[in-house]
Write a structure and sequence with these properties.
Helix content: 55-70%
Strand content: under 5%
Largest sheet: 2 strands, antiparallel
Radius of gyration: 41 Å
Order of helices and strands: HHHHHHHHEEHHHHHHHEEEEHH
Number of strands: 6
């Protein structure tokens, strides 16, 4: 461990300085030798580090989204070379290289925290062994050794013997109980964080090496924390428990407000977004516009949840625009047709009259809907009746009352001259 500590010695002094500054603030409130002052100093150090890592976390989210967009291509490669695992791996690596994605991007926040972790471990281990490290002088060292968190000294470990624990002013039972509870909470928070990522924010219908990696990490990381946690001082356990809780809350926020396409979290988000948009009639936040813009741009490539969202807006008389906004669409308003069924206005305009049967056409039955019926002879007005004087009117072409055409004559156009033999 001394070799690892020497590698990260360049960050030991800044970490110890930050802890001392926070201890000065909390020591004035709770007392300089209390566990609250030193424990909150470690928690504040975690929060400060995680705030500084937010840009890296955003980059991780973008990389994860890029991996999700590659899922269809990865599935095609998997099906194409399902009998050749080596060729499958080569094609996967080629795809990663062409698109500039990295399947190990989910480990970036943990790798970035590693220098701070080893520096903090080295500082707390120096407190346990009575060595001054960084800006921690002898007076601060004595104050830290007196600090207890729920009865466990800040520098005590689960594997420490009773003699060492008693030298720190505590009992072995208190140390074992406190460290065991913290190790369980630390491992459980890590498992829950990875599990909610796998069950809610990943499209599990596609089986790829990326999915297998995430599933493996869900079980590997908690076991690693449990195994190595028994050798961590109480102060380091406070550090890891705090950072795990921060990661869990941060991921819950991302899953709720920016879910992965095709996941269960996206279906739940679009359902909430649909209720909000139909109630307000518009989108108000930039994140909502960004998601709607991406859905509109997909066109026919939308998944089931996205199609359900777009169809729901259409039925509600709204239309999603290419810029992510939502506008009212009168052409899509739901109306009630004459036969009692519901349809959109555009559909109702295109509705055709019902076709009559052959018997109805021959017997002059009821007309189809939308056709006007002609007046019968008995219903004609008096001024429309013909006078007593015979009036010869030319029959209307196509009417049923005209005289039949004589044989040898054409129904329309110039008539054929009669043959002289038929005079």
């Amino acid at each position: 461990m001394d070799t690892i500590a020497s590698l990260f010695s360049f960050i030991t002094t800044p970490v110890s300085w930050v802890i001392v500054q926070f201890h000065t603030v909390y020591g004035a409130i709770f007392g300089p030798d209390t566990g609250w002052a030193w424990g909150l100093s470690i928690v504040s150090l975690v929060i400060l580090i995680r705030i500084c890592l937010i840009p890296l976390f955003v980059k991780q989210i973008k990389s994860t989204r890029a991996m999700q967009t590659l899922q269809p291509e990865m599935k095609k490669i998997q099906e194409r070379y399902k009998n050749d695992k080596q060729r499958q791996s080569e094609e996967m690596m080629k795809l990663y290289k062409e698109t500039g994605t990295n399947p190990l991007s989910s480990c970036l926040p943990i790798l970035a925290q590693s220098p701070f972790f080893f520096a903090l471990y080295h500082v707390l281990n120096g407190i346990a062994t009575g060595d001054t490290i960084g800006v921690i002088n002898q007076s601060l060292l004595e104050s830290a050794q007196k600090a207890h968190i729920f009865g466990a000294p800040l520098a005590a470990k689960f594997t420490d013997g009773s003699a060492k624990v008693e030298s720190l002013g505590a009992s072995l039972t208190d140390v074992r109980v406190v460290t065991a509870i913290m190790i369980v909470l630390m491992s459980a928070s890590q498992f829950f964080t990875q599990r909610q990522l796998m069950t809610k924010n990943v499209d599990t219908s596609v089986k790829t090496p990326f999915m297998q990696q995430q599933k493996m990490l869900m079980y590997v990381f908690p076991v690693m924390f449990a195994v190595f946690g028994i050798n961590f001082p109480v102060g380091v356990l406070v550090y890891w428990l705090t950072t795990n809780v921060w990661t869990m809350g941060q991921q819950m926020y991302v899953i709720r407000n920016n879910p992965t396409p095709g996941s269960k979290a996206q279906a739940a988000y679009l359902e909430r977004l649909y209720k909000h948009v139909t109630h307000a009639g518009k989108t108000r936040r930039r994140s909502e516009k960004t998601i709607i813009k991406a859905i509109v741009a997909k066109g026919r490539d939308r998944n089931e949840a996205e199609r359900k969202f777009i169809n729901g807006l259409t039925k509600a008389g709204l239309a999603a625009q290419a810029d992510g906004t939502v506008m009212k669409s009168d052409a899509q308003t739901v109306v009630e047709t004459e036969d009692g069924t519901t349809a959109t206005a555009a559909t109702a305009k295109r509705q055709q009259p019902k076709r009559q049967t052959k018997s109805q056409r021959q017997s002059g039955g009821p007309k189809a809907a939308g056709e006007t019926t002609s007046l019968s002879k008995a219903d004609e007005p008096e001024d429309a009746k013909p006078s007593d004087a015979p009036r010869q009117t030319a029959p209307k072409p196509g009417s049923s009352g005209r005289s039949k055409a004589q044989s040898g004559q054409r129904k329309g156009g110039p008539q054929r001259p009669k043959s002289p033999s038929k005079k």
